[in-house]
Amino acid sequence: MADHRPELVEEALRTLAATRADLREAHRRWQAMIRSRTFPHGERRYLMVLGQPESVTERRIGDLTCRALGWRLPLWPDLRFEVMVAPNGRVWNEWLVRAPGAQCPAPRTLEDLTPWCCTVDEVARAFPSVQPLEGDAPTRWRLAFTDPATGGRHVAHFTYGLLQYVDESAS
Protein backbone atom coordinates (compact mmCIF):
# COMPACT_ATOMS: atom_id res chain seq x y z
CA MET A 1 0.00 0.00 0.00
CA ALA A 2 3.00 2.24 0.44
CA ASP A 3 3.34 2.30 -3.37
CA HIS A 4 0.11 4.28 -3.61
CA ARG A 5 -0.47 5.92 -0.22
CA PRO A 6 2.87 6.45 1.58
CA GLU A 7 1.39 9.19 3.78
CA LEU A 8 -1.29 6.81 5.07
CA VAL A 9 1.31 4.11 5.71
CA GLU A 10 3.35 6.62 7.75
CA GLU A 11 0.25 7.47 9.77
CA ALA A 12 -0.46 3.77 10.33
CA LEU A 13 3.10 3.21 11.53
CA ARG A 14 2.66 5.99 14.10
CA THR A 15 -0.66 4.49 15.21
CA LEU A 16 0.99 1.09 15.67
CA ALA A 17 4.05 2.63 17.35
CA ALA A 18 6.25 1.05 14.67
CA THR A 19 9.18 2.42 12.70
CA ARG A 20 10.07 2.18 9.01
CA ALA A 21 12.77 -0.28 10.12
CA ASP A 22 10.08 -2.44 11.80
CA LEU A 23 8.06 -2.32 8.58
CA ARG A 24 11.04 -3.33 6.43
CA GLU A 25 11.95 -6.17 8.81
CA ALA A 26 8.38 -7.51 8.91
CA HIS A 27 8.25 -7.39 5.10
CA ARG A 28 11.64 -9.11 4.83
CA ARG A 29 10.54 -11.90 7.21
CA TRP A 30 7.24 -12.39 5.38
CA GLN A 31 8.95 -12.58 1.99
CA ALA A 32 11.51 -15.08 3.32
CA MET A 33 8.73 -17.24 4.78
CA ILE A 34 6.54 -17.35 1.68
CA ARG A 35 9.49 -18.16 -0.56
CA SER A 36 10.77 -20.92 1.69
CA ARG A 37 10.34 -24.46 0.40
CA THR A 38 9.41 -25.62 3.90
CA PHE A 39 6.81 -22.96 4.69
CA PRO A 40 3.27 -24.36 4.45
CA HIS A 41 1.04 -23.46 1.52
CA GLY A 42 -2.66 -22.77 1.30
CA GLU A 43 -4.76 -22.32 4.39
CA ARG A 44 -2.03 -23.61 6.75
CA ARG A 45 0.17 -20.62 5.86
CA TYR A 46 -2.38 -18.14 7.23
CA LEU A 47 -3.20 -20.22 10.29
CA MET A 48 0.50 -20.42 11.13
CA VAL A 49 1.04 -16.67 10.83
CA LEU A 50 -2.30 -15.23 11.97
CA GLY A 51 -3.58 -17.95 14.32
CA GLN A 52 -7.16 -19.15 14.41
CA PRO A 53 -9.56 -16.94 12.44
CA GLU A 54 -12.26 -14.95 14.18
CA SER A 55 -14.81 -16.37 11.75
CA VAL A 56 -15.18 -19.26 9.33
CA THR A 57 -18.16 -19.20 6.97
CA GLU A 58 -19.18 -21.24 3.96
CA ARG A 59 -19.72 -19.36 0.71
CA ARG A 60 -21.12 -20.58 -2.54
CA ILE A 61 -19.68 -18.91 -5.63
CA GLY A 62 -21.13 -20.40 -8.78
CA ASP A 63 -20.84 -24.15 -8.38
CA LEU A 64 -17.96 -23.92 -5.89
CA THR A 65 -18.52 -24.06 -2.15
CA CYS A 66 -15.57 -22.56 -0.30
CA ARG A 67 -14.74 -21.28 3.16
CA ALA A 68 -14.10 -17.66 4.06
CA LEU A 69 -11.70 -17.25 6.97
CA GLY A 70 -11.69 -13.82 8.63
CA TRP A 71 -9.22 -12.21 11.02
CA ARG A 72 -9.63 -9.02 13.07
CA LEU A 73 -7.11 -6.24 12.35
CA PRO A 74 -5.80 -3.88 15.03
CA LEU A 75 -5.25 -1.04 12.57
CA TRP A 76 -8.69 -1.31 10.95
CA PRO A 77 -11.30 -2.48 13.48
CA ASP A 78 -14.08 -2.11 10.87
CA LEU A 79 -12.33 -4.45 8.43
CA ARG A 80 -11.40 -8.11 8.39
CA PHE A 81 -8.61 -9.85 6.49
CA GLU A 82 -10.47 -12.53 4.54
CA VAL A 83 -8.95 -15.59 2.92
CA MET A 84 -11.09 -17.65 0.55
CA VAL A 85 -10.20 -21.35 0.66
CA ALA A 86 -11.28 -23.90 -1.95
CA PRO A 87 -12.38 -27.42 -0.88
CA ASN A 88 -8.87 -28.73 -1.63
CA GLY A 89 -7.32 -26.29 0.89
CA ARG A 90 -5.91 -23.94 -1.74
CA VAL A 91 -6.26 -20.20 -1.19
CA TRP A 92 -7.71 -18.43 -4.21
CA ASN A 93 -8.28 -14.96 -2.77
CA GLU A 94 -7.08 -12.80 0.11
CA TRP A 95 -8.32 -9.29 0.77
CA LEU A 96 -9.82 -6.81 3.19
CA VAL A 97 -13.59 -6.83 3.63
CA ARG A 98 -15.96 -4.84 5.84
CA ALA A 99 -16.52 -6.45 9.25
CA PRO A 100 -20.02 -7.73 9.92
CA GLY A 101 -22.05 -5.06 11.69
CA ALA A 102 -19.51 -2.26 11.05
CA GLN A 103 -21.23 1.12 10.96
CA CYS A 104 -19.39 2.67 8.01
CA PRO A 105 -21.31 4.85 5.59
CA ALA A 106 -21.63 3.30 2.16
CA PRO A 107 -20.13 5.37 -0.65
CA ARG A 108 -22.75 7.10 -2.79
CA THR A 109 -20.79 9.57 -4.91
CA LEU A 110 -17.36 9.92 -6.50
CA GLU A 111 -16.38 12.29 -3.67
CA ASP A 112 -17.05 9.52 -1.12
CA LEU A 113 -14.26 7.41 -2.63
CA THR A 114 -11.35 8.49 -0.47
CA PRO A 115 -8.23 6.35 0.07
CA TRP A 116 -8.55 3.47 2.53
CA CYS A 117 -12.29 4.14 3.05
CA CYS A 118 -13.94 1.50 0.85
CA THR A 119 -13.60 -2.12 -0.15
CA VAL A 120 -14.02 -3.61 -3.61
CA ASP A 121 -17.49 -4.86 -2.70
CA GLU A 122 -18.64 -1.47 -1.42
CA VAL A 123 -17.59 0.36 -4.58
CA ALA A 124 -19.16 -2.35 -6.75
CA ARG A 125 -22.48 -1.91 -4.92
CA ALA A 126 -22.34 1.90 -5.04
CA PHE A 127 -21.97 2.16 -8.82
CA PRO A 128 -24.28 -0.13 -10.83
CA SER A 129 -22.23 0.39 -14.00
CA VAL A 130 -19.13 -1.21 -12.45
CA GLN A 131 -16.94 -3.47 -14.59
CA PRO A 132 -14.06 -5.48 -13.13
CA LEU A 133 -10.70 -4.94 -14.82
CA GLU A 134 -7.53 -6.97 -14.55
CA GLY A 135 -5.22 -5.80 -11.76
CA ASP A 136 -1.51 -5.24 -12.22
CA ALA A 137 -0.51 -7.67 -9.43
CA PRO A 138 -2.11 -10.62 -7.63
CA THR A 139 -3.15 -8.45 -4.66
CA ARG A 140 -4.51 -5.57 -6.75
CA TRP A 141 -7.94 -5.04 -8.27
CA ARG A 142 -9.44 -2.39 -10.50
CA LEU A 143 -13.07 -1.46 -11.11
CA ALA A 144 -14.23 0.76 -13.97
CA PHE A 145 -17.46 2.68 -13.41
CA THR A 146 -19.50 5.62 -14.61
CA ASP A 147 -20.16 8.51 -12.24
CA PRO A 148 -23.96 8.97 -12.46
CA ALA A 149 -23.62 12.67 -11.56
CA THR A 150 -21.32 13.57 -14.46
CA GLY A 151 -21.39 10.57 -16.80
CA GLY A 152 -17.58 10.46 -16.57
CA ARG A 153 -15.76 7.12 -16.59
CA HIS A 154 -13.40 6.34 -13.71
CA VAL A 155 -11.22 3.49 -12.49
CA ALA A 156 -10.93 2.65 -8.79
CA HIS A 157 -7.63 0.98 -7.79
CA PHE A 158 -7.42 -1.38 -4.81
CA THR A 159 -4.63 -3.13 -2.94
CA TYR A 160 -5.70 -6.13 -0.85
CA GLY A 161 -9.28 -5.04 -1.54
CA LEU A 162 -8.87 -1.57 0.02
CA LEU A 163 -9.34 1.54 -2.14
CA GLN A 164 -6.07 3.34 -2.89
CA TYR A 165 -7.13 5.94 -5.49
CA VAL A 166 -9.55 6.72 -8.30
CA ASP A 167 -8.54 8.13 -11.66
CA GLU A 168 -10.35 9.13 -14.82
CA SER A 169 -10.63 6.40 -17.40
CA ALA A 170 -8.81 6.91 -20.69
CA SER A 171 -11.73 5.43 -22.64
Q: How much beta, percentage-wise?
A: 25-35%
- The number of strands is 8
Question: How far apart lie the N and C ends?
Answer: 26 Å
Structural class: alpha+beta
* Helix percentage: 10-25%
Instruction: Report on the biggest sheet.
Output: 4 strands, antiparallel
Rg, nearest Å: 17 Å
| Major beta sheet, strand line-up | 1-2-3-4
- Written as H for each helix and E for each strand, in order along the chain, the element string is HHHEEEEHEEEE
Give a description of the structure.
With 171 residues, the chain is an alpha+beta fold. 24% of the residues lie in helices and 32% in strands. The strands form 2 sheets. The protein has a 4-stranded antiparallel β-sheet with strand order 1-2-3-4. Strands 5-6-7-8 form a 4-stranded antiparallel β-sheet, covered by helices on one side. A hairpin with a 6-residue loop joins strand 2 (64-72) and strand 3. The two termini are 26 Å apart.
